[in-house]
Every structure is written in C-alpha cells, then in structure tokens.
Amino acid sequence: MTIRQHLRAILATTSRHYTIASSPPFQFTTTDAGKLYEIPKADYDRLNFNKMLPLALTKQFGTIDECVTMIRPPLVEVSSYMKTARTNFSSLRLCLWGRFGTGKTTTLNQAVHMASSEGWVVVHLKSVLSLTRKVQEVDMSTYQPGRINDPMRATEILQLFKQQNTHLWKRLSELMTTKSYEWTKNDKTVEGKPLTDIVEMGLSAPYLASDCVGALFKELRLHASKGEIKLFVGIDDSNSLWGKTLVKKADRTKAKAHELTLVQHYKNFLQNDWSNGTVLLVADQKEVSDARDSLTVPLYTPLELFGDEGFDFIDPFIPIETSIYTKEEANTIFEYYKTKQWLATPGAKDNTGRIQIAELSGYNPFYFERICAFV
After folding, report:
1. Nearest 5 degrees, angle CA 295-CA 298-CA 301?
2. 203-208 contacts: CB < 8 A, separation 24 or more?
3. Alpha carbons 310 and 244: distance in angstroms, whole number
4. Distance between CA atoms of residues 33 and 93, nearest Å
5. Nearest alpha carbon to residue 341 among 2, 13, 19, 51
6. Phi, psi of 353, rounded to the nearest 5 degrees
7. Hey, where are the domains in the chain?
C-alpha cells in the first residue's frame, strides 16, 4: 500500500465533525449557507473540474480524495435567480464580483455543477484570457471577413462542451438544426440534422471549429427560447471580453478583442434575444492588475473592470458580491481541514491555531486555505 492509499484509508474511517448539507444543490436555501457539500467524483470528472477549478483546490481535492466545498450566500443567491428562468423572460445576466481570493471562480464552478445536476445544458469557459492572451494558432475567417479564428481553442471548446454534457447527449441529438450551414463547398450541415452533428463536424475538421462553435451557440439559444432545454453559461474573467489581446494581425498590429471570432461568439450570449437560461459572469482584476499586488489600490467593482463599453453591453445585470469568511464559515472550514488531516502540525489544530490562521489570512478564503496547507 502506497503512502497516499494509506492516508486515504485513514481519512475514510475518520468521523465527520462538520455540517454537510443534505438537500440537492438546486434546493440550497439560506439555511444551508455555511454548510459543506460534496461534489460526486463522477460529476467532478465529467465537468473536468480538475482543470476548471483553481490549481490550489484541485491539489487539495486530489490529496483528500474528495471534492467538498462550502455553500456560501452568493451560491444560494445564484440558485434563487436560476429558478426564475422562463421562456417568456429574457435570459438572466448575473455577475460575481469581489476582492481577490473571496471565491468567485469556486462559486462559478459550484453553479456549473448545480445547473448540470439539474439537467441544464452547460457552456463553461474557464477564462476569457485563454481566447485573448494564450492563442497559439490563428486563421482568418472565411465566413466573416476581418475576423480571426482560433482553431485549436475552438476545438477545445467543443471537446469540453461534449464532455460536460455527455449525460445529455441523447437529448441534444434529438434537437434539430433550424437552418443549413455551409462550412465549405464540400462540407455542410443541412437543416433538420441533429445538433450534435455540428459538434462532431468541428471536432473532425478543426479548421471549421470556430464557425461550428458559433453555430452551436446560436442553436442552443434558439432551442432554449423554445423551451426545449434550459441553458447555463458560465464565463470566468468575463471583463476580458473587452480587454487587450496578444493576437497579431498580418500587419503586425495587435487585434482588438471584438475582432476575435470566439470572443464574439461568447458576447452573443449577452444579447437580449434569447430566453430560458442564465449567464453567470465573473469580473476579475487579472485583466487590469496583478491580483497579488499589495501596494496598488485594486480595481474590483464591475464598472471599474468592465469599463464603460463593457458595462453598457452587459447592463442590465444582477451584481453578486463575494466576501471574506464570516467567523462561523471560518470555523466550519477549519474543522473540515482538521478532520481531514490537512492541518499537519499539532499547534495548528487547537483553538489558538484556529484564531491565528483566521487572523493571518484576514478571513480571506484563498489565504486561509494556503496557510492551512503549510501548517
């Protein structure tokens, strides 16, 4: 037996000294706030949370061998708004905002799991920066002159969509395309074909993937508006849809964000022309500043991060602020770490250690976890 297997065996026999929510995620209420809940391993793998969650958390979950997160008021608020999605209402736009380390990305991923477990079709983007700053290959669009395609990233988007919605694949295959799509002279998807054919077309022909992403997103919005599916869209670092890019055009000048095909496809979710769904955005300061810069006064409100153009584009939206732990939340997560042996030194496990960790972290969830990982 390896050391890791031995540790997991010990943890499996350890009694729980913390409160676990008993209701399903979509039924969380304010009475569940401050409790913990576990995301099943099958859901964790299907939703690709090993890559979608913050790196520090995925390492923690890998060591503890379970994905347990806290139900916090922002998640309960997101849940309450999602329940109001109807075909006769425009899609909801929610925006998570708050200081660094207060749980914006974690809340987004929790909401993705909540929507998926309830049977919603999920479109999840880990970071807009992957579309604007980490482009490895570009190709000029033949569909929209002047637009710049990113075949590799588009293929990854289609692969992730298929993986995250694999449990709904039969249902999605029963949805038919509402128009014909002519990708090239030889490649086309005619009207009335299964929606999943668009995904398979993009995966089999990466040079068509960018256009397939746009067609897929358009069809999802149409079918959601008809009431055939409910659609959840989660976009992290969403203010970067109006940010800088590192993509260079043929004349060696840097492209604007609106010139990137994939950026435009995600912006289309923020229009008021579809219903029966929810778009959850995260406003993050990575676009405008170093999140760990302790000297500069940080920008973190939606108006500061989206700018006038982006703010006007997403308005109206519902802002949801993430905040530091309350004393009760800090105590709950401390007990969890203590029970799971995430706290290694004896001095960190008593009441004095609890107080010191809370004070040193300033009750910030990110710093709280990082300190616990090293004591």
Report:
1. 170
2. 203/155, 203/158, 203/159, 203/162, 206/151, 206/152, 206/154, 206/155, 207/139, 207/151, 208/183, 208/184
3. 13
4. 23
5. 13
6. -65, -40
7. 3-71+325-373, 76-321
- The β-bridge partners of 148 are 140, 260
C-alpha–C-alpha distance, residues 336 and 65, integer Å: 13
Secondary structure of the chain: what % helix, strand, coil (to 5)?
A: 50, 15, 35
What strand order describes the sheet that includes 231-235?
121-125, 231-235, 277-282, 92-97, 318-321
Q: Read off the tokens for 40.
A: 């099943």
Mean pLDDT for 27-31 is: 87
Long-range contact pairs involving 166-171 (C-beta distance under 8 Å, separation at least 24): 166/46, 167/46, 167/116, 168/119, 168/121, 169/196, 171/229
3 state DSSP class of 298: coil
Give the pLDDT of residue 71: 95
- DSSP assignment, residue 190? -
Residue from 315, 308, 283, 310 nearest 298 by CA: 283
Q: How many residues does the chain have?
A: 375
pLDDT digits (tens, 9 = 90+) for 178-201: 999 988 888 889 999 999 999 999
Q: Point out which residues pair with 121 in neighbouring strands.
A: 231
Residue 76: other Cβ atoms inside 10 A: 15
Cα distance between residue 367 and residue 101, in whole Å:
7
Among residues 369, 371, 356, 310, the alpha carbon closest in space to that of 105 is found at 369
- Give the Cα separation of 286 and 238 in Å (integer): 10
Could you report the per-residue pLDDT of 136-164, keeping only the tens digit for each? 888 887 777 789 999 999 999 999 999 99
Helix H or strand E encompassing 96: strand 92-97
Instruction: Give me the pLDDT at residue 17, please.
Output: 45
- C-alpha–C-alpha distance, residues 105 and 110, integer Å: 9
Predicted TM-score (pTM) of the model is 0.91
Which residue is associated with the tokens 């449990």? 167
Query: Count of CB atoms within 10 A of residue 329's CB?
Result: 21
Dig out the tokens for 100 from the structure: 């660094």
